[in-house]
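Quick start: what a row looks like.
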Amino acid sequence: MAIYAIKHGDESTDRLQQRFKKQVQKSNLIKILRERRTHKRHKTRRLERIRALKREGYRQDNRKKQFYSNM
């Protein structure tokens, strides 16, 4: 997917750069390239499940603290 901007009429170079920058941001190209920069190992199902349970426990604790402020 190529991203390019062509100068329209008497458009300034600053405006052209802004238009190009906006196109790049909308395409999420920078985000994709940053993710590809380093290799990441996939998490195992077991590890994902353990983390999800831990997260859920934290959420339950926070819900309790909302109602009982002296805990």
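That is the whole record. The chain has three helices and no strands. The helical segments are 13-26, 29-36, 45-67.
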